[in-house]
UniProtKB/TrEMBL annotation:
Residues 213-244, 294-323 form the 4Fe-4S ferredoxin-type domain. NCBIfam families: sulfite_red_A. Transmembrane segments: none annotated. It comes from Lacrimispora defluvii. InterPro entries: 4Fe4S_Fe-S-bd, 4Fe4S_Fe_S_CS, Helical_ferredxn, Sulphite_reductase_A. It comes from the Bacteria. This is Anaerobic sulfite reductase subunit A. Keywords: Iron, Iron-sulfur, Metal-binding. PANTHER family: ANAEROBIC SULFITE REDUCTASE SUBUNIT A (PTHR40447:SF1). Coiled coil: none annotated.
């Protein structure tokens, strides 16, 4: 049985949540867009249901809550090392189905790809997820083809409707809270899309032979290696290390891990002046095949969740979905050349 709450009742739930949790959701950032006098939808701390943007796709994903853009791993002095304290409060994150599938990809990389990452885990263990239902898809989404258009792996779901905010709760700890503030109960099933305007098809015959295709050369000139596609992606996990030395004591400071991008200069630089991928076509090839080939070979699911943010953010209008749809012809090209 689900719950239907009005705005006042939902905000009473939020008020209770905020006693020991920080609530994050997509919210409107006025004049926060990439261009002058434009708005943007980013994740931030919200205070009420009215702060949440339900009818637009967020320009950035939830990722920076679990994987901060810049995260201090430890502080150091001449003779000591100290890790920062763990967050005191829990976190509740509102997100759509594609992003909820993105959490699974982050978990795989940081918790099951070798030893557990303790910095990620201590944040991850303190998070609960509220699914935002999708009644309609957005222009660049291709979640249906990636199998991420619906999810049952949430603590609760919440979406606005004509009769109020419809909630499906799976967290027993919240049952009493919802029941105490509920004026109506009903069967609730989160909305999900079954068709998207943008569609992709990943060839069954896809192999690393596609690396030989000429399709990648177009990106040498088209891509400007800004890395925006990586930074808005909910499943990109790469970072680099920075040591920060304090000006008042050059022997003390902190080590941070900071988001990095496989699409930018310097990412594959190695000792001796070498670089594995020097041009943008090679970088695009690596990114695409990691998202729709390599990750699936290792984990059984594609890394890309079809949110379409990379298409939305690219200043050169490079479409990742279109790139995926070129792979079929690229495989034919390679196989034809080899025969």
């Amino acid at each position: 049985m689900g719950y239907i709450l009005n705005t006042k009742e939902v905000n009473e739930v939020f008020k209770n949540w905020k006693k020991d949790s920080v609530i994050y959701a997509p919210m409107l950032m006025k004049n926060g867009g990439a261009f002058s006098d434009t708005d943007s939808v980013h994740y931030g701390e919200i205070q009420s249901i009215d702060d949440i943007v339900f009818d637009q796709k967020s320009d950035f994903s939830f990722k920076e809550i679990l994987l901060p853009i810049s995260e201090t791993l430890f502080y150091f002095t001449e003779d000591s090392v100290k890790e920062p304290e763990s967050p005191v409060k829990q976190a509740i994150i509102f997100l759509r189905s594609c992003d909820l599938h993105g959490v699974k990809r982050l978990d795989t990389m940081y918790l099951h790809n070798g030893a557990e990452d303790p910095y990620y885990k201590r944040l991850r263990d303190r998070v609960k997820f509220v699914l935002m239902g999708c009644k309609d898809s957005f222009e660049s989404c291709f979640c249906v083809d990636m199998g991420t258009n619906r999810s049952d792996d949430y603590h609760a779901s919440m979406e606005r409707s004509e009769d109020g905010v419809r909630i499906d709760n799976k967290n027993p700890e919240w049952d009493e809270l919802f029941a105490a503030n509920c004026s109506k109960q009903a069967d609730v099933t989160p909305s999900y899309v079954t068709e998207t305007e943008t569609q992709v098809s990943i060839p069954d015959s896809l192999s690393l032979d596609v690396m030989k295709s000429s399709m990648w050369k177009q990106y040498d000139s088209r891509c400007i290696n800004c890395g925006r596609c990586n930074f808005v992606c909910p499943t990109c996990t790469c970072f680099t290390m920075q040591d920060i030395f304090y000006t008042d004591n050059g022997k003390a400071g902190e080590r941070r891990r900071v988001w990095a991008s496989c699409m930018t200069d310097g990412f594959t630089d190695v000792a001796g002046g070498g670089s594995y991928r020097q041009n943008n076509g090679q970088r695009m090839r690596f990114k695409v095949l990691h998202k729709v080939y390599d990750y699936k070979k290792r984990n059984g699911i594609h890394m890309c969740v079809g949110c379409g943010r990379c298409d939305d953010v690219c200043p050169e209008y490079i479409s990742f979905s279109h790139c995926i749809n070129q792979l079929e012809d690229a495989m034919k090209e390679v196989n034809g050349n080899e025969s």
